[in-house]
Amino acid sequence: MPEINVAMIGYAFMGKAHSNAWRQAPHFFPGPLQPRMKVICGRHREAAAEAAARLGWEEVETDWRKVIARPDIGIVDIVTPGDSHAEIAIAAAQAGKHVICEKPLANTLPEARSMLAAVKMAGVRHMTLFNYRRVPAMRLARQFLEQGRLGRLFHFRAQYLQDWIVDPEFPRVWRLDKTIAGSGALGDLGAHVVDICHYLTGLRLDKVSALLVTMIPERPLPDQPRRMAPVTVDDAALFLARAGEMTAQFEVSRLAPGRKNCLLLEINGSRGSLRFNLERLNELEFYDRTQPEAVQGWNNILVTDARHPFIPHWWPAGHILGYEHPFVHAVAEFLEAVSSGGEIHPDFADGADCNAVLDAVERSAASGHWENVQPLAAACS
Ligand code: SOE
Known about the structure:
- This protein is an alpha/beta fold.
- The chain folds into 2 domains: 3-132, NAD(P)-binding Rossmann-like Domain (Rossmann fold, 3-Layer(aba) Sandwich); 135-322 and 352-372, 2-Layer Sandwich (Dihydrodipicolinate Reductase, domain 2), CATH 3.30.360.
- The chain contains 10 helices and 17 strands.
- It has helices spanning 13-28, 45-55, 64-69, 85-94, 109-122, 136-146, 178-181, 185-201, 325-340, 348-367, and strands spanning 3-9, 34-41, 59-61, 75-78, 98-102, 126-129, 153-161, 207-213, 218-220, 228-230, 236-243, 246-253, 262-269, 272-277, 283-288, 298-302, 371-372.
- A 9-stranded mixed beta sheet has the order 16-15-14-13-7-12-11-8-17. The chain has a 6-stranded parallel beta sheet with strand order 3-2-1-4-5-6, with helices on both faces. It has a two-stranded antiparallel ribbon with strand order 9-10.
- The longest helix is centred in the last third of the chain and has 20 residues, at 348-367.
- The protein is globular, with a radius of gyration of 21 Å.
- The model has no long low-confidence stretch (mean pLDDT 97).
- The structure holds alpha-L-sorbopyranose.
- Alpha-L-sorbopyranose binds next to loops.
């Protein structure tokens, strides 16, 4: 089977999730291309070497430019903080590499547009890794929506809540610094639910009215706990949106005690409704109004049967999946797209669509008015 060498730039939390995916994909989704975990890249050699040994990468490099210049590398997987996504992805595309990039695609809309233009110009395959699209229950939900089982769409409702920065003594880590992270809960959590809204409904959010709040404006520096530094991103974001006639509402926060990684969705249509909770990710709730009235009620579907998406590759019915599996699905489908030259979603256009919504949210929070989501530039279409 032909091999393709993969280089991963970055090695922290997402580096662990992606490394596991590269390792597992060929075992559970044997496909046309065998990925080889060739080189991992990080600025600090010792830490990168430790990650390489633990996560299973063959070589270590400290300069991503050297990685991209290597002719033996076929895929570049970017898991660094958002401030370096654009530079690395554009250089990788220009060097003819296929590119995977963690979400959000970029810290700003202009950067996202340049990234999209670069991959299109280079003719390489590209993917924004919104992992939740490949939770089996999410793909099943999408099938229901495509089949018209919800009818005319009225409302999309999403909350994504975490609690890891509730303590005011929690340090001002990079995710709380706008120059590195771009935004706070908005880009980190809001990006996921905006993308899921686009994915499930097939509609694009077109206008928003938003509020961004920072409740804990300064925190101790990680390496100097007696010195305080300003938090320059939002702790929480709330926004209303429209996609044509459908209304959408979003609440994302990292200040919600008890909510660990709680992504809740509800979609209401003329024929029924869907509900999903990421902390119960093997389940999808469906209310079908077309059933006889006497039996109408919420059905809780355990999405672990062989007829459900992705499941035949894993375990027998009822043997549940977890957080790491959607990353495996993403990598396996990306390898297929690289091999066939076919389309893969979410691509950089989907990533840029999401950035366009985040951009409108930031403008609306600043202006206090409804703001239109800018369409992607014609140059990118
Ligand atoms: C933030 O805590 C975070 O790790 C996000 O960055 C991920 O995208 C999300 O999947 C889980 O939460």
